[in-house]
Amino acid sequence: MSIIEVSNLTKYYGKARGIVDVSFQVEEGEIFGFIGPNGAGKSTTIRLLLSLIYPTSGRATIFGKDCIKYGPEVRQHIGYLPSEVFYYEGMKVIDLLKYSASFYPGDHTARLHDLAEYMELDLNRKIDELSYGNKKKVGLVQGLLHAPKLVFLDEPTAGLDPLMQRKFFDLVKRENRERGMTVFFSSHILGEVQRLCHRVAIIREGRIVEISDIKTLQQNNYKKVRVEGNGLDATAFDFPGVTNLEQQNGALRFFFRGDINRVLQALAAQPVGDVTIEEPTLEEIFMHYYE
């Protein structure tokens, strides 16, 4: 069953492009990644689905109901963490979360405290005393405290330290595994999406350029290679899969897509001082993969 169905969704802000002819589906219980560089249209898409803004054309449904027509009803079963969080500065964290919980039927006190403890969030501090990372924790607890069927996470890890990022990913996986919560996860960091998601849609300049399962994306992905050493022979890396080969200041840089063992074989015959093989940024993938 599709929890989200988007068909030719378009949004213009006057003459400025938001998104154009965006179509995709998110299945029940899926962790769906939505990635693209900043300004690609990720947040616009989420705000349209939440009926915080209205589309220029096209339509979208959540739980089989039109997002605009049934917005308030649909949002009762949705959690949302925006990319930027803003709160009433003078309130204590516990008061803010209780206020948020009051918008949903049922008693969410126990779950509120469990989530806050898990995320190491001090409920008795005032909002204006919190760091950006701790404010983000408040947003995470706020988005999950009513046990939503579907949660939208827009750049959720910004401001969290690496240890807390891992705890957050574990929490999302647990909610997905134990409760069957569907997750719409927006990010510009490809590694985050690869660790967490089942499928991914890539948006660029307001348009969907690819939708695939995460294994296919990883297989098609480039690696960024940097080799340092005295007397490196650049021609040793002139083979299929290598692009953008540059030699500068005793170092070789290139992108590679294919069997990484081919690169390792070439490295073994070179006077290598140091080597780095890493994931390129999403912007670099767009530059070298989609042009």
List keywords for this structure.
single chain; 291 residues; alpha/beta; Rossmann fold; Alpha-Beta Plaits; 2 domains; 6-stranded mixed sheet; 4-stranded antiparallel sheet; 14 strands; 33% helix; globular
Count the domains.
Answer: 2
Name the helicity range: 25-40%
Indicate the CATH topology of the largest domain.
Answer: Rossmann fold
Poorly predicted segments:
none
Give the number of helices: 10
Report on the architecture of this protein.
The longest helix is centred in the middle third of the chain and has 18 residues, at 162-179. This protein folds into two domains: 2-218, P-loop containing nucleotide triphosphate hydrolases (Rossmann fold), CATH 3.40.50; 222-290, Alpha-Beta Plaits (2-Layer Sandwich), CATH 3.30.70. β9 (199-204) and β10 form a beta hairpin. It has helices spanning 42-49, 71-75, 93-101, 109-118, 132-144, 162-179, 190-196, 214-220, 260-268, 282-290, and strands at 2-13, 16-27, 31-35, 57-62, 65-66, 78-81, 150-154, 182-187, 199-204, 207-213, 223-228, 242-248, 251-256, 274-278. The strands form three sheets. A six-stranded mixed beta sheet has the order 6-7-8-3-9-10, with helices on both faces. The chain has a four-stranded antiparallel beta sheet with strand order 2-1-4-5, covered by helices on one side. The relative contact order is 0.14. The protein starts with a strand and ends with a helix. Helix content is 33%, strand content 31%. With 291 residues, the chain is an alpha/beta fold. The chain has ten helices and 14 strands.
